[in-house]
Structure formats: C-alpha cells, structure tokens
Specification:
The chain is mainly β. It has a single domain, classed as Jelly Rolls, CATH 2.60.120.260. About 10% of the residues lie in helices and about 45% in strands. It has one helix and nine strands; from the N terminus they run αβββββββββ. Strands 1, 2, 3, 4, 5, 6, 7, 8 and 9 form a nine-stranded antiparallel beta sheet that branches. The longest helix is centred in the first third of the chain and has 20 residues. About 5% of the residues have low confidence.
C-alpha cells in the first residue's frame, strides 16, 4: 500500500510540475488593434488579454465588437518564447447579426518586421457550432516556434465579437528578443498571412 501511495504522489507531483510549465504568455500583455472597436462594444486596451472570457451574451463587457470587414490585432509578448498554441475567442448571436469570422489568419515574428504565417483558415459555416448564441475558440495548435509578436487577421462579414487572445507556451523558454519595433509600429499590410 505504501508503494502505491508513493508512486501516486510522485505521479501527481510530476504531472503538476509538467503542466505548470505551459502558461498563457499573452495574459496581461500589450496589443494593438488596427481599427478601433465600435464605441458600443469598446476595447480598453486590456480586454483581449485580461484572462476573462465572455459569456454567450453580447452585452457581457468582456466582448470587443467591430464591424470592419478586416481587423488586425498585434500582440507583444515583450520577450521571445517557444509558442505551443494560439487561440482567439469569438461570439455568435444571430438575432443581433453577430457572426463568427469568415476567416482567421495568424502570423508570428521575433522582431515585428519579418513574419511567418502559421495558420490561415477560411471557415465553412457547416463545420462551426450552429446554435443561435454560442462561443467558439479558433485554435492554432502545435506551433512549436519562437516568437515575440503574434499578429491576427480577422475577416468579418457583419459584427464580429472577440473576447480573449491566448498564446500558450513554456515560460522557462523566455529569451531576450532581437531588436525590433514597438507593437503599435507594426505594418499589417506588410505581413504575408498566406501559408
């Protein structure tokens, strides 16, 4: 019995230790929107990385809403990290004409100048949740690359609501980034989001 307890404790310690390595590197980090959010569903500069997910209700203050056909977001992790996955949360509420994006593309960079596309998805609405009111997380998995900046391009058709950008990775891989630009100096039109 003691052997079983000892093995169980070692397993729990190892499991908790290994899970603790992966963290949301984006939490509390600075980002820049290319186009301002709508004044009715504003962005305070922190909403998309504050760790708070929106309820499936467009009136929840966690949502940032915009009507631009194309929106860009650039996120600055401040340091260079090994990135495992990136996710962005969206809301669909058909009675309010809020729909999931038509497409989402993600690119990463060490300096904010040279970019590498890691995902470019055009959605087939039949593959997305069909509920009238529902949240959905766009996920880019198995990135396994180093980056300081994450850029996201969102193609919308009407209203698009976002709540949280997450960048998961190992905090112990933190390294000094190469000289680059500030997040608000990123030129979105120079980023090639195509794979």
């Amino acid at each position: 019995m003691r052997k079983f307890v000892a093995i169980s404790l070692i397993f729990l310690l190892f499991t908790n230790w290994s899970l603790a390595l992966e963290v949301n590197l984006a939490k509390g980090k600075e980002y820049f929107l290319a186009h301002e959010a709508d004044w009715k569903y504003p962005d305070d500069g922190l909403k998309l990385t504050d760790g708070r997910f929106g309820y499936p209700d467009y009136k929840d203050f966690a949502w940032v809403g915009f009507t631009n056909r194309e929106q860009f977001v650039a996120l600055d992790l401040r340091d260079l990290y090994q990135i495992d996955r990136v996710s962005v949360g969206f809301l669909r509420s058909t009675d309010e004409a809020i729909f999931f994006p038509v497409g989402v593309a993600v690119a990463i960079s060490e300096d904010g100048i040279e970019w590498e596309a890691i995902s470019n998805v055009i959605y087939d609405y039949r593959d997305l949740p069909q509920n009238k009111i529902v949240t959905y997380k766009h996920l880019v998995d198995n990135v396994q690359k180093k980056a300081r900046f994450v850029a996201i391009r969102i193609h919308g058709s009407t209203w698009v609501f976002m709540d949280e950008i997450e960048v998961w990775g190992d905090n112990s891989t933190k390294a000094k980034p190469p000289q680059g630009v500030y997040v608000d100096e990123i030129e979105f039109d120079l980023i090639d989001f195509d794979l």
